[in-house]
Amino acid sequence: MEQDDDLDLSALDDEELVAQMHDDLYDGLAEEIAEGTQILLDRGWDAQKVLADALVEGMRIVGIDFRDGILFVPEVLLAANAMKAGMELLRPLLAETGAEQVGKIVIGTVKGDIHDIGKNLVGMMLEGAGFEVIDIGINIEAETYIAALEEHKPDVLGMSALLTTTMPYMKVVIEEMKKRGIRDDYIVLVGGAPLNEEFGAAVGADAYCRDAAVAAETAQALVTARRLAAA
Predict the structure, then answer these.
(1) 49 plus 135 within the same structural domain
(2) DSSP letters along 165-176, please?
(3) What is the CATH number of the domain that holds 35?
(4) What is the sign, positive or negative, of the torsion defined by CA atoms of 19, 20, 23, 25?
(5) Which of 97, 122, 141 is the last residue before a domain boundary?
(6) Are residues 92 and 119 in the same domain?
(7) Where are the beta strands (DSSP E) in 80-214?
(8) Phi/psi at 8 (5° precision)
(9) Which end of the chain is more exposed for a tag (fewer CB within 10 A), N or C?
(10) Alpha carbon 191 to chain centroid, angstroms
(11) 81 with 28: CB under 8 angstroms?
(12) Which has the closest alpha carbon to 28: 89, 91, 74, 88?
């Protein structure tokens, strides 16, 4: 790593710089990611291209190694934090151009449960995949989920639980959506340590996601499939 300390990012050509940014994201180097992002913008790259080629692709690599057990939660949190440093520069530019995001997701931990590390990690991975993430927090009851759906009109609702006692509340939320006739308007993803695919199917979710990397992949795949079906 020491040679990176005196590596002049501005001396690299575009291709080398993007590859270096993938490495720096992997290593959780926030300052370097912010610097690399600014260099690409100064070279005339548009914000969407920087996001897709440098940041999202870098986080995709992080996500694969997280899924495969090569990286662990602390490293992924560092990578996500580095991504955030680049996003702070890109977000206002993306808003100006009205660049279409991959999709929008409302995410929260269910009523009775105050665990949020997993949820936060999922949110960061989804943002890294190009989603707009609205995190409504922990201990969320059905009414609050429904209000967030009505306000933000997302593509996806994500629910998290880390306790076996709070898992069943996911079904309460989905049943309330059915009662209001809005269940089919949204893709519903569920996740958390005690859950499994059978549970996800039993409560009526579209998919169970075993970790943050899978959540990002699944959300992308389901949103893309739904848009193609609607086209």
Answers:
(1) no
(2) TTTTHHHHHHHH
(3) 1.10.1240.10
(4) negative
(5) 97
(6) no
(7) 103-110, 131-140, 156-160, 187-191, 207-209
(8) -90, 105
(9) C
(10) 13
(11) yes
(12) 74
| Exposed/middle/buried for residue 122 (C-beta within 10 Å: 0-12, 13-18, 19+) | buried
Q: Which amino acid is at 13?
A: D
What are the tokens at 45?
């790259």
Among residues 97, 123, 148, the one where a domain terminates is 97
pLDDT of residue 52: 85
Q: Are residues 132 and 83 in contact, defined by beta-carbon separation less than 8 angstroms?
A: no
Does residue 110 sit within a domain? yes
58 and 31 belong to one structural domain? yes
Looking at residue 21, its amino acid is M
First to last CA, the chain: 48
Question: Both 77 and 107 in a single domain?
Answer: no
Per-residue pLDDT of the chain (231 residues; tens, 9 = 90+): 444 557 899 999 999 999 999 999 999 999 999 999 999 999 999 988 998 899 988 988 998 898 889 998 889 889 988 998 998 999 888 777 766 678 999 999 999 999 888 898 898 888 878 889 999 999 999 999 999 999 999 999 999 999 999 999 999 999 999 999 999 999 999 999 899 999 999 999 999 999 888 898 999 999 999 999 988
> 146 and 39, same structural domain?
no
Q: Sign of the C-alpha dihedral, residues 75, 76, 78, 83?
A: positive
Number of domains making up the chain = 2
In this structure, the number of other CB atoms found within 10 A of the CB of residue 177 comes to 21
Model pLDDT, residue 172: 98
Task: Determine the structural domain holding residue 136 and report its residue range.
Answer: 103-230
Q: Are 81 and 170 part of one and the same domain? A: no
